[in-house]
């Protein structure tokens, strides 16, 4: 599980019941360099350096074992890079509101939209927390805030600003994973939020076309944290993705139990 920029693994922990319910999947949540509990040395100066660190981790953690990858936002770029590196060792790929276009100026974005505002809720929060929440929440509600508080805020409070500055200064991968010669034929799921004003949804639809067996779903009433805005829909899509991998993998192979 590969999270986005300026957050940590806790952003994705709310998805864990989907995987746990199937009973056969070992889940490995990582903190990217400079985020959560992972330090970033001075050598981490680009997204390529982050990707190299994750590849190194995966080689040590999984050896020749087959595994699936879920990447969110910035972590979507890293996840796609892993697929390009590991090829058929990867069972499947899920991209949750992934960065499809690294250059912010080239992204196709909808306007920032709040479909339901809750001024009373915002007024009750710490001003810094309220600002962070208001920048991202498409539907403001106590329930949605609680998910944001538990999943997003811990990472926002912990990341290394110096390291993130270095990474952001060299944000694009030197080579887009989807442009590398070997294609990926495993089950692929792309989830986007129609109100996602950070990475958009149109570029994600185009990204899905680069994968041979991709399902793409654009969720209404969902922003960049689509899994927090639409947890039930996201869970259903991920469950079907898991089922497709379980149906397609040869006997005796698959995720660690």
Q: Could you describe the 3D structure shown?
A:
The structure is a single chain. The protein is an alpha/beta fold and 257 residues long. It contains eleven helices and four strands. The protein has helices at 16-20, 47-62, 74-86, 119-124, 127-136, 142-151, 153-156, 161-169, 202-208, 226-229, 231-248, and strands at 67-72, 90-96, 188-193, 214-219. Strands 1-2-3-4 form a four-stranded parallel sheet, with helices on both faces. Strand 1, helix 3 (74-86) and strand 2 (90-96) form a beta-alpha-beta unit. Helix 2 (47-62) packs across helix 3. The longest helix has 18 residues, at 231-248. It is globular and about 50 Å long.
Outline the secondary-structure elements.
Elements lengths: L15 H5 L26 H16 L4 E6 L1 H13 L3 E7 L22 H6 L2 H10 L5 H10 L1 H4 L4 H9 L18 E6 L8 H7 L5 E6 L6 H4 L1 H18 L9
Parallel strand pairs: 1-2, 2-3, 3-4
Helix pairs in contact: 2-3
What descriptive keywords fit this protein?
four-stranded parallel β-sheet, single chain, alpha/beta
Mean pLDDT: 94
Main sheet makeup: 4 strands, parallel
Number of strands: 4
Order of helices and strands: HHEHEHHHHHEHEHH
Number of helices: 11
Shape: globular
Protein structure class:
alpha/beta
Low-confidence stretches: 252-257
Tell me the radius of gyration. Answer: 18 Å
Q: Which strand order do you get reading across the main beta sheet?
A: 1-2-3-4
């Amino acid at each position: 599980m590969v999270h986005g920029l300026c957050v940590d693994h806790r952003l994705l922990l709310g998805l864990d019941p989907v995987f746990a319910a199937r009973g056969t999947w070992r889940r490995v949540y990582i903190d990217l360099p400079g985020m959560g509990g992972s330090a970033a040395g001075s050598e981490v100066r680009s997204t390529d350096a982050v990707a190299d660190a994750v590849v190194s981790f995966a080689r040590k953690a999984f050896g020749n074992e087959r595994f699936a990858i879920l990447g969110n936002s910035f972590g979507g770029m890293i996840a796609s890079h892993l697929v390009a590196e590991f090829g058929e060792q990867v069972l499947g790929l899920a991209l949750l509101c992934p960065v499809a276009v690294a250059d912010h100026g080239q992204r196709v974005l909808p306007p920032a939209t709040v479909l339901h505002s809750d001024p009373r809720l915002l007024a009750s929060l710490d001003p810094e927390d309220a600002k962070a929440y208001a920048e991202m929440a498409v539907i403001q509600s106590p329930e949605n805030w609680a998910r944001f508080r538990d999943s997003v805020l811990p990472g926002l409070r912990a990341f290394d600003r110096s390291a993130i500055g270095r990474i952001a200064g060299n944000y694009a991968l030197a080579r887009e994973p989807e442009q590398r010669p070997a294609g990926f034929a495993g089950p692929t799921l792309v989830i986007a939020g129609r109100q996602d004003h950070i990475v958009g949804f149109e570029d994600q639809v185009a990204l899905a076309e680069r994968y041979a067996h991709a399902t793409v779903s654009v969720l209404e009433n969902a922003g960049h944290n689509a899994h927090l805005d639409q947890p039930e829909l996201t869970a259903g899509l991920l469950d079907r993705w898991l089922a497709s991998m379980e149906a397609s993998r040869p006997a005796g192979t698959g995720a660690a139990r």
